[in-house]
Amino acid sequence: MYTKVFLATAFTSKSPKEVDVLKDCLFCIDGEGLIERIVHPEHADYEKVLDEYIHTDVFQKIEAGSYLLPGFVDLHVHASQWAQAGTALDIPLHDWLSTYTFPSEAKFADLDYAKTVYEDVVSTLLANGTTTALYFATVHKDASVLLADICAKRGQRGLVGKVVMDLVQECPDYYRDADTQTALQDTEEFILQVKEIAKTTKQGVYPVVTPRFIPTCTEEVLAGLGALAAKYDTHIQSHCSESDWAHQHVQQRFGKNDAQALNDFGLLQDKSVMAHCNFLSDEDAKLFAETGSAIAHCPVSNAYFANSVIPVARFAEMGVDIGLGSDLSGGFSPSLYDNSRQAVMSSRMLEDGVNPSVPADERGVNDSRITIAEAFHMVTAGGGASLSLPIGRLEEGYAWDVQRVDTTIPSSRLPIFDPNEPLLDVLQKIMYLARPENIREVWVQGERVHSRN
Ligand SMILES: Nc1nc2[nH]cnc2c(=O)[nH]1
């Protein structure tokens, strides 16, 4: 017996560059919220399965004009920074952190305030089609546990990190870990508490070891965090080679690139996701591919803070796992649709170049462009592979993490006039033009967690 059966037309990524259209398929969901079977109209038992379920209350027909897409995976989001989204994007990263972000994050010592912001950001991401999020919380252990608890209760697959920053010279007195030992002890307690919360969920919540970035961390804490991640087999997240300033800071301190330094501390492994990575050398990218570490590409944020466009096409070609991150609030938008659009636009600017006074053949970087299908891959299957979780694809054995996009709502700006429009064109229009209003239902691990009537 299936617990749910959907009759729908859906899109899923077939390969990094190709999309599969699943037309009028039956998606059969098991009791754990996994896709047990996808029955295509040409399968011999299609009519039999349809007849068996069509008159039951576990059957749902997705009406014409609505399409199912895998839920999106946000590989880099500072949940606390939702409170300052859209502000101060005109100043450099270092100033933005010290004048806006650290004071704003310090407020999360207050659990009531943390609850208000965290409930809102989790709901907002779900309403934007984001079913899995890799979150930075703040340095505060209790508020970070609270974020994991809110994800658990709202049904979002949250991977949550208590942020570690213990380097006295680089962190303000009002906002850092008390000392190195406390940072490590708080992280260990945090990991254990989140593992307990995870037992109460169907979709899973996960503790993530989270050194903010090398510039705010002592060597002792970085090594200790690498050891904790190994001990508890957790995910790891940080920022890596984001901007000229951050990249050079690590070079000056260790005489090597960020990627190499992170690896030396045991922080690059299969469940590591590093944000930005704009200044990775080819050697660094090889290290990412060899260790199975992933890049969280944050194209909106990068336009403000990264001083460059990351060559994702080259790194993908080298075998690095890549997904997309909203990077609230270096990126102002909670929508991974917006980030997919920006990923394509930024890649085109890298390929063509941006300075009109330079001759065309010297202006850009060849073979840098990505298509919207590649962005769709990054925001779904690429995100799932980056986290080593069975999510981001509509395939048997994967979680039923799905968004229903209705292209027919009256306020929709989706110009679909021809009922026979090729479905791959419909997907392109959805990726470029859909807004939260179009996202009518969202499921995580088989449970409906958002609906808009
Ligand atoms: N974009 C971004 N980069 C960082 N580097 C260290 N902390 C941050 C942060 O909060 N946002």
From TrEMBL:
Q: Which keywords does UniProt give here?
A: Hydrolase, Metal-binding, Zinc
Which Gene3D superfamilies does the UniProt record give?
Metal-dependent hydrolases (3.20.20.140), Urease, subunit C, domain 1 (2.30.40.10)
Broadest EC class? hydrolase
Alphabetically, the GO molecular function entries are: guanine deaminase activity
Domain Amidohydrolase-related: residue ranges: 67-449
What note does UniProt attach to the cofactor annotation? Binds 1 zinc ion per subunit.
- Write out the catalysed reaction: guanine + H2O + H(+) = xanthine + NH4(+)
Domain of life of the source:
Bacteria
Pfam families tied to this protein: Amidohydro_1
User: Which Enzyme Commission numbers does its entry carry?
Assistant: 3.5.4.3
Obligatory cofactor(s): Zn(2+)
The pathway entry for this protein reads as: Purine metabolism; guanine degradation; xanthine from guanine: step 1/1
Q: What does this protein do?
A: Catalyzes the hydrolytic deamination of guanine, producing xanthine and ammonia.
Q: Which family does it belong to?
A: Belongs to the metallo-dependent hydrolases superfamily. ATZ/TRZ family.
Q: What is this protein called?
A: Guanine deaminase
Q: Which organism is it from?
A: Sporosarcina gallistercoris
| Name of the coding gene | guaD
